[in-house]
Automatic annotation (TrEMBL):
Database matches in InterPro entries: AraA_central (IPR055390), Fucose_isomerase_N/cen_sf (IPR009015)
Any coiled-coil regions, as ranges: none
Superkingdom per UniProt: Bacteria
Residues of the L-arabinose isomerase central domain: 168-267
A Pfam match: AraA_central
Name of this protein: L-arabinose isomerase central domain-containing protein
Keyword terms, alphabetized: Carbohydrate metabolism, Isomerase
The species this protein was found in: Diplocloster modestus
Amino acid sequence: MGELKVKFLMGPAECNDRYIPAYSQEFLQGLSKAMGVEVKCAEMDEVKAQPLPVYFIASGGAEQGFKALYKETEEPYILLTTPGYNSLAASMEILGFLQEHGLKGEILHGSAEEIAARLKILKRVADAKETLSHMKLGCFGTPGGLIASDADFGVLKKVSGMELILFELDELVAEYEKGGYPENTYTEELKKKGYRAEEMEKALNVYGALKRLIEKYDLQGVTVKCFDLLDMIHTTGCLALAILNAEGIPAACEGDQKSLVSMAVLHALTGESGFMANPSCMDPGRSEIIFAHCTLPMDMPDSYGLTTHFESGIGVAVTCDIAPRPMTVFKCDDTLHRYYAGRAELLETMHKSDLCRSQMRLHLTDGTGYFSSRPISNHHIICKGDWKEVIDEYFSQIK
């Protein structure tokens, strides 16, 4: 997570204990230990250059100092406090001032461990917002048969800074015909699986083409109208997208723009690769859903095999085994005002013949009601771990 710089504010020296600076330094040392990164005082220029500016309200009387500076940063205003020297009282006065001006703020108070846990979430969200604000996402083809999966490029740009760029699928095909792909851990491992060599080369050439286009246009994520590739180049994008997601490049299939945005947001917040999947079967009584698709990220399974794309029976797709573990199911729309984040437990991975190749049976903590009454279209994104608190915090900050 790196270091975290905070702006130190205290009241006039003549009205406060001369030991406050030393006390505050000791407090920051304990917080640094709890966070696992150095938390230190710095000048305002350094503090406000961070994605998460923090004001360290060290004593009573710091209110006027805050009032003189607060316009240099934006909400939410994070007020770090100690248990001594009227730090909390001054912060409450500041928070009241912010609320009177219609601004969001938060007081951090408690044990070093409690404050550290909250700061980690806030810093992760702030870092993600900064990352997303510079992202360019390439759409190779439109959603096509999907009627609720396109995005409003202008709205997304305004609310997040993320830029969606539309490319003709023909450009990907032309790049594919050049042939070639990077030799790396994933491609070498895949070729060692001994799957049909001709099909493997075609699938990896799609990966190579996308990698070159990502570099050419400085893209940080892609979606591909992959079903059209079946007729155009007689292979699929399944394996290419599986590798890209494992490499930390959000990659959605079927030209799904909302899913690409969701994958980008989820990866920025968690650092985890996301599995874009269809909810294929629900058991409301058990709060269970089976999700399935053919583009599982290569870094997600404990072990995997290779087979064909489900619907077409051609190309190369991944079938997986993953041990039971906590998961998060996520989706957002292009306005970022509507989202779903659900805690889930992976009960088992499956190998049914009538579903897409990677299959997960999940138990959903909050049940299946959202999926039957208000889903954000079809595809949803699944990642390892419980990230609901981080996701909820991110969307609470969207204006």
